[in-house]
Specification:
alpha/beta, seven-stranded parallel beta sheet
């Protein structure tokens, strides 16, 4: 059998490819870009655009192969409202559909597919289990939820599909929205929080994400959805305070009236000047913590990385890039994960 990673050159994909290769497995990385092959030198790379069925057809899938869909359009760069559907759906939904249909033609039955915690929308119950109501707040979360419905249809036709719903994924090679935070801290400027900062904020390490996919394969690809997040995330105020202290910065943390900030951001979004995507800021002061115990019960998966350590490691990477003259935006845009 082969392990075929669509979007495998992206953030999670390259770590999964590396992990599988270390286990002696044959790995095919199928992606539209090829920027990180030094991470997985023994894998076979195939150029593939998941939005093009003919491009996917060129990837040789056998019935016994294990397939992973890590291709995605993310919330970065921020899109204006009118462009969001056309930005997210061709890759997130149509790409997933194309992959599954290619699997069906080949007789392949096992797929690991990443969606997002954004399928949940506002917090209804805390902590959020996989049975939490789903009500996405925007096109990104909706495009991912629609792939979950698609997966449900194909499960009924005999496929085994494991779904993962990760929180914000961080780790080496991806800074994204964190770059704005790090710039404020470096310049000793105030760091505004949406709300009081008393609510926890949960990350998930890229290494823990890759491990989850690996364990799903080892477990036989259960027809289940699993949350991916850290354990015991700290309050935003403590998380950011520890980072400011680590950086030796004089930045002050500024609590705000969450309602007013959100309405201001709503207005900027309405006039096509978004500072954040609504799916990010509308839940920023809520108790959005995923319960990850199901993954431990079914897969033996336990996240190994703490939020505090992940954020400080990301800041140290930002500083290292800045010192080396590579620019703080290096690695901030990942085309597929």
């Amino acid at each position: 059998m082969k392990h075929i990673l669509f979007g495998g050159d992206g953030f999670v994909g390259r770590q999964l490819a590396k992990k599988l290769l270390e286990d002696g497995e044959e790995v095919i990385v199928a992606d539209i870009v090829n920027d990180n092959q030094s991470v997985y030198p023994k894998a076979t790379f195939l150029t593939c655009d998941v939005t093009d069925p003919a491009s996917i057809a060129a990837v040789s899938i056998a019935a016994e192969d294990m397939v992973y869909n890590l291709s995605a359009k993310m919330l970065s760069p921020i899109q204006v409202r009118a462009k969001r559907h056309d930005f997210f759906y061709p890759v997130n939904y149509d790409g997933t559909k194309n992959i599954i249909e290619a699997m069906d033609r080949a007789g392949a039955k096992k797929l690991v597919h990443y969606t997002t915690d954004m399928v949940y929308g506002h917090t209804v119950t805390y902590p959020m289990t996989e049975d939490h109501p789903v009500a996405p707040l925007g096109e990104y979360g909706q495009s991912k939820l629609d792939t979950e419905f698609l997966a449900g249809d194909w499960r009924e036709r005999g496929m085994d599909i494991t779904l993962f719903r990760p929180r914000l994924i961080i780790g080496p090679g991806r800074l994204g929205i964190l770059t704005k935070l790090f710039k404020l801290i470096d310049m000793n400027l105030p760091v505004p929080m949406i709300g009081s900062g008393k609510n926890p904020y949960q990350f998930i390490s890229v290494f823990d994400c890759a491990d989850a996919a690996y364990r799903a394969w080892k477990a036989g690809v259960p027809n289940e959805a699993y949350n991916l997040g850290s354990i015991n995330p700290p309050p935003v105020k403590k998380l950011l305070g520890d980072l400011v202290k680590h950086a030796g910065s004089k930045s002050l943390l500024l609590p705000t009236w969450g309602f007013a900030v959100k309405r201001t951001l709503d207005f900027l979004d309405a006039i096509n000047m978004p500072l954040m995507d609504p799916e990010q800021y509308l839940i920023a002061d809520e108790m959005c913590v995923l319960d990850v115990s199901k993954g431990e019960r079914d897969l033996g998966w336990v996240p190994a990385y703490r939020d505090e350590d992940m954020l400080i490691a990301a800041y140290d990477e930002y500083r290292s890039q800045k010192t080396a003259g590579n620019g703080a935006n290096h690695g901030s845009v990942q085309p597929a994960e």
